[in-house]
Write a structure and sequence with these properties.
This protein is of the alpha/beta class. The protein contains 30 helices and 39 strands. Bound molecules: iron/sulfur cluster.
Length: 948
């Protein structure tokens, strides 16, 4: 294990007479900010290359449709406001480019500095034609004197005409420099205000040409949607494509956050000032971005990425930045519902809880099953499995990890001894080579994709293996467009090349691994050409990828559900583990095997034992000594019988074995494969309790619906994909009468006579977890309040573990596995000639329960689409937007066609975000025999155009 602590050299600097100790190599501007000393800087922004005195590299602004800068819309040189005096230097220096030195003496606000800043800012405002309303509010053209202005009077010294309203760096700079009462001559540009997309407004009349928006889009996001463009006879900053619809914009809002004035502002934030800002963890994907949420009168009015913390360094995606409004949707479940006379009707908490507590005891043991939730906190998942095991006396406890990363837990556990991401998100940027396989990272884990793009900019090689074209293909050194389901052939082919070309790390294999000889022998009869043909690739492409991976260490493997959701998902990951061990690419920074978890707390729900086979902390449920440990702690005997996985639960319901089901925060109606079978099972239950924040499709079938508080309405922790445990904080009051899931579970448990469910706070639950779960041994709220901690964190003095398996694997030696190339269970044939593969899109999340309540996201993507290749569309006479019937052996749906060469010939793609149509009616419930994960990624379908 490694500590994750960085050793840094520090230097002593004096700023305005204040002595500060700072990291060597940082700039004077950074040092001043660390010491809370303000220096105005309008072209500087964290993550961007400082511009300083020189014009930035013009190639940044002149790619694509960028028009030559003729000075009309703004000038590209730095703002020159961050000037400082450094003793011993004759000239003023730009603090954004000047590095600190030991003993340096800096003065930030001398008369000479301020005079020069005034000149520079006046020049900037004049050159960019920025209206001076804000800077000279009582003299602005068309405005009454400040003292008579109704709007301004509400905020002393500030004109609220400005939509950013006291969140304007230009205003702050002008005030600091002292030009508030100076009239700046300008000629209004009279540019149209653009509101052509859902989340923000662009008013380039206010643009000061700092290009922070253009640069962040290019330098940090790697998207390059913006530039200087020619519109309406003027040169302005804008989208390179004529409209946002046609542009490559991802709507992440980074440009809006970087804008120092009001040229770009979020529609939802106009004229709103947060009373309180609370740091919490994003409730969507497993990246676990830290965010600052501003609240005004109990409503969310502002969201920003948190800048000082990993994993996201201030960045968010469209969901985190603009979509927390789901929590304030009118559709929220606000009171319990109880089924009476066939209808769900509102009930009191007392009535609903009494009914649940009366009914559930009848199903104790294996007539009961519980589906916990990757959207709930660690503490709530701990309580859910404790309730299932202790009160309901069953190990029939599972959650959606079974549908996304059960094969990861099984395979990495078998090969390395730990089923989690081996390395950290921030290490990705330093990799020498990255193999991204089965992950559409820019759409599914957007902030991790930024690290991949950064690594590429720093010179890393990028191998993308994906049957579909994804955005990362445009950056890849090689794109392997292999057939869906042929990953084992591809990866074993790479292994064979590495062995043949003697690129393996012999010492690492000898000292750290076992089972190599059997694995090597198994490849003797393995023909690269045959593997290539199975994968639909040239052997030379596999060889090229193998060489890139082996020769550019540290090499990192990143994968997601394109690898796991197969009937041979475990084999896919075992092959990747073999590949990493062959080249010694495990146990070092920027290497490893990095499964990207889908939901916000799917890692934590696994850690907390919401799995039939494990107690919390991956302690085997079938192990008698583990059981004894938890029996001693919880004070009662615990069930020894093996529990059912999620998919098996539905089989058991149909067989009449499971009669009561308690579902927390999941929507199996849409998320399970072979949806028709699932609906039949749900309808067959004697008693179904659904606890959720919205009336999901599943909730509509329940006997009792319990309204839960959202992640923004409660305290707790989530564990992100890199094993980082982070605080979740209450930002809003629970909607209506909803309650945190943990409180509801405890209340039901207590009513059923369960002991050990009286906690005074979620922090007390975490204390119990840390006593029972060695990898969480050193985790407490007190420590998490400062920053997240990565497990293993065995004791209170341990700083957490940034990468696993440093000196030895968690299981001792890393184990090579012999793996066969098994085909997917259902491949295209004459009757069902197309292969359907499924995945997520960028604008919705999981089954859409949260994101489909966000109007802006619906504007960006309002319906399911069938991606079909132009060749197939032509052959079937299907045009863009026409309705196609898609049928498999399990069901059929109608869906609009999207004709695109993102999908190869013979392969069609759909997401599973929509209820109409429910894609999973089509998918195959065939299971991986080890991990019991269903084969979402491959099933055979036929297509027919619906006549108009
Ligand atoms: Fe939230 Fe994931 Fe987007 Fe980060 S990348 S803002 S965690 S959805």
């Amino acid at each position: 294990m490694t500590t994750g602590q960085k050793i840094v050299d520090t230097v002593r600097v004096s700023i305005n007479g204040q002595e500060v100790w700072v990291e060597e190599g940082i700039t004077v501007l950074q040092a001043a900010r660390e010491a809370a000393i303000y220096i105005p800087a309008l072209c500087f922004w964290p993550g961007l290359q400082p511009v300083g005195e020189v014009e930035p590299d013009e190639s940044i602004y002149r790619a694509g449709e960028v028009i030559e800068n003729d000075g009309v819309g703004g000038e590209v040189q730095g703002c020159q406001l961050c000037l400082v005096e450094v003793e011993g230097e004759a000239d003023l220096l730009t603090s954004c480019t000047t590095k600190v030195a030991d003993g340096m003496v800096v003065w930030t606000d001398t008369d000479r500095v301020q005079k020069k800043r005034r000149e520079n800012l006046l020049h900037l405002l004049t050159a960019t034609a920025h209206p001076s309303i804000c800077l000279t509010c009582d003299r602005a053209v068309g405005c009454p004197p400040f003292s008579l202005c109704v709007r301004s009077a509400r905020v002393p010294n500030r004109c609220v005409y400005c939509p950013k309203y006291r969140d304007c760096e230009l205003y702050d700079a002008a005030a600091h420099i002292g030009i508030m009462n100076v009239t700046v001559p300008y000629t209004p540009a009279n540019l149209p205000i653009v509101k052509d997309q859902p989340f923000f407004v662009r008013d380039y009349n206010l643009c000061i040409g700092c290009l922070r928006c253009v640069r962040i889009c290019r330098e940090v996001r790697g998207v390059d949607a913006l530039g200087f463009v020619f519109r309406d006879g003027k040169v302005v900053v804008g989208t390179k494509a004529p409209t946002f619809d046609e542009s490559v914009c991802e709507f992440c809002g980074a440009c809006v956050d970087a804008c120092p004035c009001s040229a770009l502002y979020a529609k939802s934030e106009k004229w709103k000032r947060a009373e309180q800002v609370i740091t919490t963890t994003c409730p969507f994907c497993g990246v676990g971005c830290q965010m600052e949420v501003g609240v005004l009168k109990k409503h969310i009015v502002r969201v920003r990425g948190e800048n000082t913390n990993t994993p996201n360094d201030g960045q968010l995606c469209v969901k985190g930045r603009f979509s927390l409004s789901f929590a304030e949707s009118q559709d929220r479940l606000k009171a319990p519902l109880v089924r009476k006379g066939g209808e769900l009707v509102p009930a009191s908490w007392e009535e609903a809880l009494a009914l649940v507590a009366e009914k559930l005891p009848q199903y104790k043991g294996n007539n009961f099953a519980l589906i916990s939730s990757a959207k709930c906190t660690n503490e709530e998942n701990y309580l859910a499995q404790k309730f299932g095991r202790l009160v309901m006396e069953t190990n029939n406890i599972d959650h959606c990890a079974r549908l996304c990363h059960a094969s990861t837990v099984a395979a990495l556990g078998a090969a390395f001894g730990s089923g989690a991401m081996t390395n950290s998100i921030e290490e990705i940027r330093d990799a020498g080579c990255i193999l991204v396989i089965g992950s559409n990272t820019t759409e599914e884990h957007p902030v991790i994709a930024l690290k991949i793009k950064e690594a590429k900019r720093r010179g890393a090689k990028l191998i993308v293996a994906n049957p579909r074209w994804i955005d990362l293909c445009s950056l890849a050194d090689i794109w392997l467009r292999h057939k869906p389901g042929s990953d084992v052939s591809l990866v074993l082919g790479m292994c064979q090349v590495i062995i043949k070309e003697k690129l393996l790390d012999v010492d690492f294999i000898k000292e750290r691994c076992e089972g190599f000889e059997e694995f090597e022998n198994s490849l003797h009869t393995f023909l690269l050409e045959e593997a290539a043909s199975k994968a639909g690739l040239e052997a030379s492409s596999i060889r090229e990828a193998a060489l890139l991976y082996a020769e550019n260490s540290p090499s990192s493997i990143i994968y997601s559900m394109g690898i796991t959701q197969h009937s041979h998902g475990t084999d896919n990951i075992l092959s990747l583990a073999n590949l990493a061990m062959l080249t010694g690419n495990v146990g070092r920074p920027s290497t490893g095997i990095n499964p990207l978890r889908g939901q916000n707390n799917v890692q934590g729900a696994c850690d907390m034992g919401a799995l039939p086979e494990f107690f919390p902390g991956y302690q085997a449920a079938q192990d008698a000594s583990t059981r004894k440990k938890f029996e001693d702690a919880w004070g009662r005997s615990l069930p020894a019988q093996e529990g059912l996985t999620v998919v098996e639960m539905f089989d058991a319901i149909l067989e009449g074995k499971v009669k009561a089901l308690y579902i927390i925060g999941e929507n199996p109606y849409l998320s399970e494969p072979d949806g028709t079978r699932v609906v039949k099972a749900l309808e067959k239950l004697d008693f179904l309790v659904v606890q959720d924040i919205f009336p999901s499709e599943t909730a509509r079938l329940a006997h009792v619906v319990l309204p839960a508080a959202s992640a923004l309405e409660k305290e707790g922790t989530f564990t992100n994909t890199e094993r980082r445990v982070q605080r979740v904080r209450r930002v809003l009051d629970p909607a209506g009468e909803s309650r945190p899931d943990g409180e509801i579970i405890c209340e039901i448990a207590k009513r059923m006579g369960g002991e050990g469910f009286s906690y005074s706070s979620p922090s007390e639950i975490m204390d119990e977890v840390s006593r029972l779960v060695p990898i969480y041994g050193g985790i407490s709220y007190e420590r998490l309040d400062k920053a997240g901690l990565q497990w293993p964190c065995p004791d209170a003095s341990h700083p957490g573990t940034s990468y696993l398996h440093r000196d030895q694997f968690s299981r001792g030696k890393g184990k090579f596995h012999v793996v066969d190339c098994r085909p997917s269970v259902e491949l295209p044939d004459e009757e069902y000639p197309f292969l359907l593969t499924t995945g997520r899109g960028p604008f919705h999340f999981q089954t859409g329960t949260m994101t489909r309540r966000v109007a802006g996201l619906n504007q960006l993507r309002s319906e399911e689409l069938l991606e079909i290749s132009p060749e197939d569309a032509r052959a079937l006479g299907i045009g863009k937007g026409e309705i196609v019937e898609v049928s498999s052996r399990r069901g059929k749906v109608n869906v609009k066609a999207r004709v695109t060469d993102r999908s190869p010939q013979g392969v069609v793609f759909m997401t599973f975000h929509f209820a109409e149509p429910a894609t999973n009616v089509l998918t195959n419930p065939a299971l991986d025999p080890v991990a019991k994960i269903p084969e979402f990624k491959v099933c055979a379908v036929k297509l027919s155009k619906i006549a108009k």
